[in-house]
Amino acid sequence: MELKKKILCIGAGYVGGPTMAVIAKHCPEYQVTIVDINNERIAAWNSEELPVYEPGLEEIVRQQRGKNLFFSNDIETAIKDNDIIFVSVNTPTKAYGEGKGMAADLQYWEKTARQILNHAESSKIVIEKSTLPVKTALAMERILHSQNNGISFDVLSNPEFMAEGSAIDDLEKPDRVLIGCQETETGCQARDILVDIYAHWVPREKILTANIWSSELSKLVANAFLAQRISSVNAISALCEKTEADIAEVSRAVGLDSRIGSKFLNASVGFGGSCFKKDILNLVYLCRAYDLNEVADYWEGVVRINDYQKKRFVLNMLTSMFNTLAGKRIALFGFAFKADTGDTRESPAIDVARHLLGEMAEVVITDPQALDNVHLELGDLLDTGRIHPISDPYEAAKGCHALAIMTEWGLYKQLDYEKIFHSMVHPSFIFDGRNILDHNRLYEMGFNVYSIGKMPMTHFGTELL
Ligand SMILES: NC(=O)c1ccc[n+]([C@@H]2O[C@H](COP(=O)([O-])OP(=O)(O)OC[C@H]3O[C@@H](n4cnc5c(N)ncnc54)[C@H](O)[C@@H]3O)[C@@H](O)[C@H]2O)c1
Fold it and tell me: How far is CA 201 from the centre of its chain?
C-alpha cells in the first residue's frame, strides 16, 4: 500500500488536537491536518489562545503549526487530500430516543463516515480514535462500502488512553498504544502503517496489536476499571466516616499490596470528566443489549456510587452547618473536573453547585482555568442570581460561611488560609472534597474541617457531630 505522507484528523477537540500535535512533532515527514465543523474551534487552534488547556501543548503547537501541523475547516478538500484519516469526533451519551441516557450517540460518528465516503477519491485507512461501542467498525465498514465505486477502505481501531491534565505526557510516553484491525491482507497492511507512525517515538513492545473488537472493547473496559477503583475507595470512605478509620491510611495499606497497586486510590467527592460515566453507561447498555443483566448491574453500581458520593458531600455540608444552607455563602474552589484542565464536562462541582442552589445557598465559584464554563454548565440557573463566578480565590472566600475544595489544583494547597479564615463568616467551615489540604493546621487556625473518609475536626464539642 503506497500512501502519501499525509495524516488527517476529523475532530479538533481534547483528543484530536493534542494527539495530532504529538504525531506532528515526532513525524516531521508527515503533514498533519486537523479539521472540524466548529469554525470557532479551528480559529482558536490557529490563534494564540488555544481552545484546550494542557500543560506542554502550547509549546508543541507553536513549534509545529504552519510547518507540518495545520488546522482547517475545509473538510471536503482534506478528505480528498489525505489517505490516513483519524476520526476523533465526540460520542456523547444519547439524550433522546431508544437508549436515552445510556447508549453512545453515534450521529457525529456516522455523519463523519458519510463525509469520508462522499468526498473520497482514493483508498483510505480510517482510524477510530473516538471511544465507541464494540462492533462499531462493522457499521463503519458497511457505510463506507455502500457505494461500489472501486475505492477501498480499511478501518482500524486505535483508542486513545490519554488523560486530560496530563495529555501530552501520556501521549509522549504512553503505557501502551493499541491498534486493532480486521485479519485481512489489507487490514494488516493498514495496521503496519499505523504501527510505523507510532514507532517514531513509542517503543515497539508498547505498541499492541489486537483484533478490532478486542481493541474497541478494551477502551470501554479500561475506563470502567479506572472508575471502579474510584467508586470502590469512595464507597469505603463512607464507612470510614462512621467508624473512625481514616481512608488515607486504609488506601495506603491496601495499595501497598503489589497485586492491587497504589494508583487511583484517593478518596474524593467523585469522578467527573466526559468519559468515565458515558463509557460505563455505554458498557452497561451493551451488556443489556446482549441480555447480560447481571454484568450490566455490576458496572452500573460504579456510577451509582459516584452519584451517591456527590450527594453525600452536600448532605454532609447541610447537616454540619446546622441543617440549613439558605442564604449562606459557600465558595467552591475549583470547577474543572480535575486539576490542570479547563474541562468541566461531568465535573462534580456542577452537581454540588446544583444541590447547594437547591438548598437556597449563594454559590461562589472560582477556578484558574474553567471559570468561563460556569455560564455553559449552570446557564439554566443563572437567573436565580445566586451564582457568583470570581476568579481570585481570596475574593471568592470573602464573606463566605464555608468553602469546599472541588478540584485538586496545586494552587489551592498554597493559599494563605489564615488570611482566608479572617475574611470569612464565623464559625467557618472547610469541606475538602479532594483531601489535599493540611487539615490539622486548618483546624488550629479555627476552621471546622470536614474531609472525605476521615472524622471531622470541629470546635463544637462532640454533641454536635
Ligand atoms: N477527552 C478525553 O479525555 C478523551 C480521552 C480518550 C478518548 N476520548 C474519546 O475521544 C472522542 C473525542 O473526545 P473529545 O474529548 O476530543 O471530544 P470534543 O467534543 O472535545 O471534540 C470532538 C470534536 O469533533 C467535532 N466534530 C463532530 N462532528 C464532526 C464532523 N462531522 N466533522 C468534523 N468535526 C466534527 C466537534 O465539533 C468537536 O470539536 C470521544 O469519543 C471521547 O470519548 C476522550
Answer: 25
Per the residue annotation, which of 27, 181, 240, 275 is the catalytic one? 275
Q: Which CATH number fits domain 6-202: 3.60.15.10, 3.40.50.720, 2.60.40.2950, 3.40.50.1820?
A: 3.40.50.720
The CATH number of domain 212-465 is 3.40.50.720: yes
Mutate to test the pocket of ligand 1, among 36, 87, 90 (most ligand atoms within 8 A of CB): 90
The C-alpha atoms of residue 16 and residue 41 are separated, in whole angstroms, by 12
User: What angle in degrees, to the nearest 10, is found between the helix axes of 57-64 and 16-26?
Assistant: 60
- The pTM score is 0.94
Closest CA to ligand 1's atom 19:
90
16 lines ligand 1 (CB under 6 A): yes
pLDDT mean by block of 10 residues, the chain; 465 residues: 84 98 97 98 97 95 98 98 97 95 95 95 96 93 87 96 96 98 96 98 98 97 98 98 97 98 97 96 97 98 98 98 98 97 96 98 97 96 96 98 98 98 98 98 98 96 54
**275 catalytic per annotation:** yes
